[in-house]
Design a protein that fits this description.
The protein is α+β, with helices and mostly antiparallel strands. The chain has two helices and eight strands. The chain has a five-stranded antiparallel β-sheet, with no helix packed on it. The chain has a three-stranded mixed β-sheet with strand order 1-2-3, with helices on one face. The protein is elongated, with a radius of gyration of 21 Å.
C-alpha cells in the first residue's frame, strides 16, 4: 500500500470526524507498519489520534490490506520531528527552535514572529561596548528567515 493512499484515507477520516483544526504532517508505510503523524492548530490530543486511528483501521480491515497483519500508529508529530507546514509555526511562538537553511546555516533562537514572508528567530549575543570595548553586554538580535530558505525546522526541547 502506498503512502499517498493512506494519507488520503487519513485525510478523509479527519474530515469525517470534523476535526477542522487537524492536519497530517507525515505518513510512513514500511512493509506492514503504518505511521500517521498528526498536528493541529492548538495541539493534538490522544483522543483525536485514537479516533482517527479507529477510522483508518476500519477501512484497512474492510479492504483486507496486509491480510489483517499490520501495525497502525497514529500520533502527534512530536517535539523531535521537523515542522513540515507553515501552519505549525504560529502555535510555537515563544519556543526555542533550530533552523537549518538550504545554504547549510544553522540558526538557534526563540521563534518570535511568523508572517507570510517567513519567520523571525531572536537570540542573545554578547557584545563588547564602552570606550575601550571592554564592557560585555547581552544584546538581543533578530534573525528573519524567509520560508523558501528553510530546509529543516525543529523545536528545541527545554528542560
Amino acid at each position: 500500500m502506498e503512502e499517498k493512499h493512506i494519507k488520503k484515507l487519513a485525510r478523509k477520516s479527519i474530515e469525517t470526524l470534523e476535526y477542522t483544526d487537524c492536519f497530517i504532517t507525515e505518513v510512513k508505510v514500511a512493509g506492514n507498519k503504518v505511521e500517521i503523524f498528526l498536528d493541529s492548530d492548538d495541539g493534538i490530543s490522544f483522543l483525536k489520534c485514537r479516533k482517527v486511528s479507529r477510522e483508518v483501521e476500519a477501512v484497512i480491515d474492510e479492504k483486507e490490506w496486509w491480510d489483517g497483519r499490520y501495525t497502525l500508529e497514529v500520533s502527534s508529530a512530536g517535539i523531535g520531528r521537523p515542522l513540515v507546514s507553515q501552519r505549525q509555526y504560529p502555535k510555537n511562538i515563544g519556543r526555542q527552535m533550530v533552523i537549518k537553511t538550504i545554504e547549510g546555516e544553522k540558526v538557534k533562537g526563540e521563534l518570535t514572529a511568523v508572517d507570510d514572508e517567513g519567520i523571525t528567530l531572536t537570540y542573545e549575543v554578547i557584545e563588547l561596548q564602552g570606550q575601550n570595548k571592554k564592557k560585555k553586554v547581552k544584546v538581543q538580535k533578530d534573525h528573519p528567515i524567509k520560508w523558501d530558505v528553510i530546509e529543516e525546522a525543529k523545536i528545541k526541547a527545554s528542560f
